């Protein structure tokens, strides 16, 4: 195994990890505040991808358009999130855990159904925008520019969230609600508003992820499921509701996934699942336990 | 109340038995799948509705049974069909015992859900990699078996014969599970679901009871898989996919997870929805998802719960407000 | 008299909060032993430690001559420890009778008495009789067929009491048995405890806020404050204890709370 193989696997792992994090970020955020593990997140991610696809088609004309479409998708999905919150999520707060999971799974089904009705079941593939179409080469190392873009996007979202959560008043407020929503209410924090803000932010992140990760993959109604499981694992390993933990866990899972593809190329996912099982047996509270977001 | 319930069960059974004489093969095939999925759902709900454990990887047990029986029939090992079914159940029980020993010791809720999900995915990947089991293509053209009972040999090679065999098997499994759930053991499981700690203070080793329920559930799910293999005549890694694991959940919740027959009612309703919406892609997901949402948000006790509430209201009105009526067992058992 | 339960130098912390500080006590066979103290004194934690609900760091707990420090709750229950919770813990989705049936069957199975096999769907006559006896004990015979979640608060407490009794305990641990009850219910519960104690020679360990109940029932009282035992003895001894007077009269905790 050459050094370049390993380097390539590492960069690939970072790209996969960043992609997973883009999905996991919203998932962990919504868990931190609402204590809901939201299966439907995958569906909203997929809807974001479809919305962006409807705007830019299979061949985006420029990087600007590509990114603008991702933000448009974020806005559209955020609006949907607002509706989902009002209609469903809000009512789930006092429901048993298992019923919560199943209710959000039902939302996933509804979304999948709607996507199939609107966009059909045919596969579509989307090319990266011109600037990201090529690859960066250094010696014998060959890295697709799009992978670098995804890594940058992951970092951007992570740093943005960190900044908002730890450096702004709204972040402090959300942390207070996450650690004790009842007490926050007593202290005069408008808890319902904080919850709505989080839900919208979480869904916007799902839509953004859908738009940003659109290129170089097959767009189909099962897109939601593919990232969802990995993102779930990342959220749980990172410590439920913890953005920083989810980031580290996503990169870890991405690296394991891409590293294991060097060793056992025929069993994609295997190493990741085994790692998740062993990790949770050893440390069930996740990388960063406790009640932080 | 009792008579009505019995009547509904008998009517349902009669309907299933009469089906091959009145409808075409396509419908009979679907009805067979309903029988299989209903057994699968009953096995899942033994865990969820009765013991309070949510497994999100139950399809793994189904796949274990389906592959074992499918392989046994296809390879012509000479093992009698009932032996294959029993072996499937045992293997399912064994795998449940091993995983349950590790998992149930300290996990419930979301962690258990993720664990079981991850384990099932591992199994799916392993099956997809195994040349013996046909990799991603699965095992195709599995022959229908012959039933050897010692005193008689019944060929099940025709679709109708195998269909009747499945109906009988479904009735037997349903009856056994019914007794398990309604006797002292089921009473204990229901108590564990409601308050495991309280049960521990009654002197019950709750962990062991949960493990037993997990093993029983795994065995029954594997038997459902074993019945499936010769009926569909093909078994693919998709049978272990987590989407398949969600089928029994959806059916149980739709029908009513706290009543014994809920999963069966839910499975039937699901199949009907799927059948009626088959011409418009996406519509079945939409209808099923929306129905489920309504159920969880507005009627968490499922369709059976709705029927029961209506019934109680009706009988109360008839008695004109005479105290709590004597419907023992109420929301849990039926 | 012999000791049935003794706690020896038990320490328990939650994080940096040291809740129990080297607590030791001995409960004699057949007595009624009350643990009192202001809120946050560590009564409930002591209770949880004694029943096996939670573990602890140092010390040991001896029940009937054997070390049960590491024994899980269900093993302690099998040895004859029964308990109730501060907020009544019952099985809300089944009938009152079924609540007791499951408790009776669990005891019979765990103590090797005659218990029905898994396939006996109809409740066996001897078990039904035992359940009815417990229903009469706690005065719920007319509510046998009611789903437990529809019971009033006081009835729930009584049902839980019945569940604990169905385990035929040698020692019954009651965590605030009359909390939230009406005065009438409170007297009835105290009478019930007194009667059962007289009939069966039951040992009772209880925490309680209501002084009338305690003075009516307890043989000995233990007073806790900030995780430490500040006095233990008969009612008169404890009443005369200057430290206890300071803690209680200085704070008037009970009246402030109500």
From TrEMBL, chain A:
Is Coiled coil among the key words of this record? no
Q: Which GO terms describe its cellular component?
A: plasma membrane
Keyword field contains Transport? yes
Key words, A-Z: Amino-acid transport, Cell membrane, Membrane, Transmembrane, Transmembrane helix, Transport
Q: In which compartments does the protein localize?
A: Cell membrane
InterPro entries listed in its UniProt record: ABC_transp_permease (IPR001851), BCAA_transport_permease (IPR052157)
A molecular function (GO) term: transmembrane transporter activity
Pfam families recorded: BPD_transp_2
Task: Tell me how this protein sits in the membrane.
Answer: Multi-pass membrane protein
An example GO BP is: amino acid transport
Which segments cross the bilayer? Answer: 6-29, 36-56, 62-87, 99-121, 141-161, 197-215, 227-256, 262-282
**Protein family:** Belongs to the binding-protein-dependent transport system permease family. LivHM subfamily.
What PANTHER family does UniProt report for this protein, alphabetically?
ABC TRANSPORTER ATP-BINDING PROTEIN, BRANCHED-CHAIN AMINO ACID TRANSPORT SYSTEM PERMEASE PROTEIN LIVH
**This protein is called what?**
Amino acid ABC transporter permease
| Organism encoding this protein | Prosthecodimorpha hirschii
TrEMBL record, chain C:
- Does the record bear NADP in its keywords? no
UniProt domain ABC transporter: residue ranges: 5-251
Q: Which domain of life is it from?
A: Bacteria
- Keywords in alphabetical order: ATP-binding, Nucleotide-binding, Transport
- Pfam family, any one: BCA_ABC_TP_C
Q: Which GO terms describe its molecular function?
A: ATP binding; ATP hydrolysis activity
Q: Has keyword ATP-binding?
A: yes
Which residues span the membrane? none
The GO cellular component terms are: plasma membrane
Q: Which SUPFAM superfamilies match?
A: P-loop containing nucleoside triphosphate hydrolases (SSF52540)
Q: Which InterPro entries match?
A: AAA+_ATPase, ABC_AA/LPS_Transport, ABC_transporter-like_ATP-bd, ABC_transporter-like_CS, BCA_ABC_TP_C, P-loop_NTPase
**Sequence similarity:** Belongs to the ABC transporter superfamily.
Q: What is this protein called?
A: Branched-chain amino acid ABC transporter ATP-binding protein
According to its UniProt entry, this protein's organism is Prosthecodimorpha hirschii
Lineage at the top is: Bacteria, Pseudomonadati, Pseudomonadota, Alphaproteobacteria, Hyphomicrobiales
